[in-house]
């Protein structure tokens, strides 16, 4: 096979790659010439990513496991290296959302339960993913690209638990970039709202509800995304994959570490009366 992608010959391991942004990044990395191990809780979801890869399916390795299990992750790293010979790029991405459960609308018991489950997956899961894989990344002088969120910077991308968890992962980018330099670069992509299958904590009865349903309710008369400066910023996860390619690329990002790219339609430059100042241009 001859490709001219930015990740030619690289090997990536992506958690939560059976749907949403993880799957979109896996398919994009394939198009950029990488081989990808896709890790997630449910085999049928991972198989759908393999099927979506089409002719490139031989470069996809589905691996079932839970990011709360160091054993599952260690086995996944070993299986990736056994199949593809090395690991260049790690994408900690698997996560859940708290469906904006606010402090005033939850009991102390509820907030505690949401915290335990969500932090276990969204924060400890990222730590364990890195903890089990960093040695392989040192060997290849590879990199880590973490999925962050607008909630790593701003209010109202979730409730207090999700917002705190995403702020925590922003801290992981900073600290791990320091700890793993100079051999391994560590960066993040703060994606904005995406129409995915993002679910909530089982402990709050939100396991079967998806963020897509929340978006559908919110579209209203203004239409999707009109609160963003880039009104037509897509919520198709594939449109957010470019920064993941750039940050993973040894050729194009060799001097970039500890950085987060905001891929959120411009939330940080939103105005007061209107979302964008140039609507009459
Ligand atoms: N959808 C959005 O609006 C949005 C916005 C900002 C950030 N994010 C972040 O993007 C990341 C991916 O979410 P998504 O929107 O693609 O949702 P998604 O539900 O489509 O993808 C998340 C994947 O992680 C898997 N997963 C969940 N818990 C797991 C566990 N314990 N072990 C292994 N796999 C597990 C799920 O099965 C799913 O396939 C998350 O970190 C999320 O916080 C999403």
UniProtKB/TrEMBL annotation:
Region: Disordered, residue numbers: 218-237
Origin: domain of life: Bacteria
Protein family according to the UniProt entry: Belongs to the short-chain dehydrogenases/reductases (SDR) family.
Keywords: Aromatic hydrocarbons catabolism, NAD, Oxidoreductase
Organism lineage string: Bacteria, Bacillati, Actinomycetota, Actinomycetes, Micrococcales
The keyword Acetylation is annotated on this UniProt entry: no
Transmembrane segments: none
Name of protein: SDR family NAD(P)-dependent oxidoreductase
